[in-house]
Amino acid sequence: MKPLNLIALLLFLGGAVWAFTRSDRAVREIQAYYFSAMSPFLNSGSKMETKARQFLDETRHSKELEVELDSTRKELGKLQIIESRFRGLEAENETLRHALDFKKTTHFVVVPAQVIRRHPTTWWQTVDIDAGEERGIGTQLAVLSNDGLVGKIDRPDKGRSSVILLTDEKCQVSARVEGSPEVGILSGQRGHFVGNPLLRLKFLSTEAALRQGQRVFTTGRGGIFQPNILLGTIESVEKGALDSEALVRPSVNFADLGTVFVVLSADPSRP
Predict the structure, then answer these.
(1) Residues 68 and 184 in one domain
(2) CA distance 262 to 131
(3) 21-56 pLDDT, tens per residue?
(4) What's the whole-model pTM score?
(5) What one-character-per-residue DSSP string does 19-38 give?
(6) Which of 105, 132, 167 is at the close of a domain?
(7) What is the C-alpha separation between 177 and 233, in angstroms, rounded?
């Protein structure tokens, strides 16, 4: 029995016992007073019971929704994992396509590799790749991309290697300017750069007649870099009293390096 109904019953019984000892008129007055007094309790009890049932129904419905939501979250998590794996396979396939295309067109025997580490403080100086001595890679080998020279192997390890980038001033390359007799030494520059840094081509003649957009290639001198590898294009020329220098925009996007190729040797099967 509900608490409010029990209270009403007790009051009723008490009132009835007392009423039997009184006159008819008193009984009628007591009955009227009793029903008047008890009516709010009875109505309130009924309303509270209705609200309690509504609350229980809503709670039950809320739990059902929570179960459905939890199930939906789990399914969404599975779909996100599948999507991530799919995108990873797409990237891997794209890398393999680049490697195959490069191997078909290059005149070198190369080992494809991925850039796996790059530190913010040496962003324009070095990168680590996932290929090393176990794949025939040694020190001072040229590293290329589809767009040109990236740098050279600095420290090979068993399963990885450190690469000095062309944008580092320590990486110096003998270079020639297409359509010109000018030959000089190309290297990176010191400083902090917002975008792809420019290279500096030094020791040109004072009469160097170069124009913006002329391409710059390796000469092959020095025994490290093979000849005719694209380095970049002339951006501007600065003439001095003893020699001239040119700023060169690199052909490789050094801000976003992914797949690279380490040159093991020239391909004897190609002319």
Answers:
(1) no
(2) 9
(3) 555 565 555 555 555 655 555 555 566 667 667 766
(4) 0.65
(5) HHTS-HHHHHHHHHHHHHHH
(6) 105
(7) 9
